Amino acid sequence: MADPPSCCRPCSTCLLCLYSCRWITAKKEKRRGLRTTKCDCSWFFFLFCVFLFTLVWLYIAIIILNDFHNFNEFIFKQQKLWLDWSLVLLIATAVLITYSAVLLLLALCLQLCGQPLKLHWLHKILLIITALVVAAAFTGLGIKWAEEWRSARISLQATGPFLHIGIVGGMTLLAWPLASAIYRTHNTGLKVFLLLAYSAVMIALYLAPLGITSPCIMEENQLPPKPALVGHRGAPMLAPENTLMSLHKAVDCDVQVFETDVMVSADGVPFLMHDEKLTRTTNVQTVFPERATLNSTAFNWTDLQQLDAGSWFLERRPFPSVQSLSHSDRMQATRQKIPSLGQVLDAAKESNISIMFDLRPENHSDYQSFVNATLEVILHSGIPLQQVLWLPDGFREQVQQQVPGIQQIYGRKRLQDEKEPLLHVNLPYQDMSSEEIKQYRQDNISVNLYVVNQPWLFSVLWCSGVSSVTTNACQVLKEMKRPIWLLPSSTYLMIWIVVDCVSFLMILWAFLLMK
């Protein structure tokens, strides 16, 4: 049997320099009779595992971008430091995956060239550090942000078919260096092990589509209507959150519901604010430095009206879209004040948009008075009551009795022994499976899921039949005329067969070519 083809000496020398840090020619390396030892094979296997480990983390990092604004807010509350940590995450992940990918590519090329895989000690240390960093990232995610694992499972409904094609392609390309290694080794047991392991993996990959499910594998005429958009605190990518400017920007995005949070001032005026403290979205530290750490409800309405609720948006740039704002929008943002609930209801009535809100904080000792003050403002505003969507669970029965026209939105799934059937539910998107969404839709229960920012996630929920989604990115989802992809089952079956057949033929070609 002839030796497998090898590459030119300058190429081999260059590969050795980068992988082994051996600044000698491949010819000298060959004369010294160096071979790949079992220890070298173990390090190659470790390199391959680190690459896969880092690749999985890259996938997870891309998926959690949908919810990363929540992480930025969490860090601000803890450290009083605002930074778009998603950029840090992506840059660090890109560095790690690039390093391990380049090192793996060098190793595969060295194998094809018939050169020993003598990994330098510096690379070994860096690989161990890479593995530890990624392991720490996974551990932190599991401890502090466990719901993102459910996000990852949902993402497979959007990416599963394409991940299958990519993995099959990658494993097919691996056939060339694998065939080279099998033909070069004289250990029969190792040959059999490599062939059986590779064959088992490929058979599993060829049959994987049997377990891939996605609501977007359907006929075009089965696609449900596009979900309605609910503006999360308005349009927070285009204007300061929970302001009148944000409401008007949401209206421009064809949003049907303005979702917000209501608190009540010390003198009984309901106003819009999400955080318990005013430090993130106002200049309270400048205007009232000695009271900046107090809860929002400790300020009276006169004090709240002195605060600037828009300049922080331009200074901290909570979303990348802030950079593209026009000059007029920037000027308008600097003039934003904290709006009262009455002002927002008037604007909603004028724009013919519904309003959905939480009343915070629910553990406050005067919460019942907060409910009464809020209901009084709603009734006094004259807004059609069907345009008001009530989220708070506290004193819900009292609200239903006093103002029966308000739509009740429940933050839970229906119960088996439900006395009154739920008509509207509002849940995190991780809490509802595609099957549950379809069942609720058949039972005429309106389902709103939050917070949905990425087109891939919106596409999956659209195909599942969700009624509406709460989003920060209304300007992005507004432009989507159909899901990112939609495949009839017959087309998907044909793609599956073609991909598997092409892969099988290429693997046969690789083993015949390297023989």
UniProtKB/TrEMBL annotation:
Membrane topology label: Multi-pass membrane protein
Residues spanning the membrane: 41-65, 85-113, 125-143, 163-183, 192-212, 492-514
Gene giving rise to this polypeptide: Gdpd2
Subcellular location: Membrane
Family: Belongs to the glycerophosphoryl diester phosphodiesterase family.
UniProt KW keywords: Glycoprotein, Hydrolase, Membrane, Transmembrane, Transmembrane helix
Protein name as annotated: GDPD2 inositolphosphodiesterase
GO molecular function: glycerophosphodiester phosphodiesterase activity
SUPFAM superfamilies: PLC-like phosphodiesterases
GO BP: lipid metabolic process
Family matches, as Pfam families: GDPD
Principal subcellular localization: membrane
GO cellular component: plasma membrane
InterPro entries attached to this UniProt entry: GP_PDE_dom, PLC-like_Pdiesterase_TIM-brl
Domain GP-PDE, residue spans: 227-481
Origin superkingdom: Eukaryota
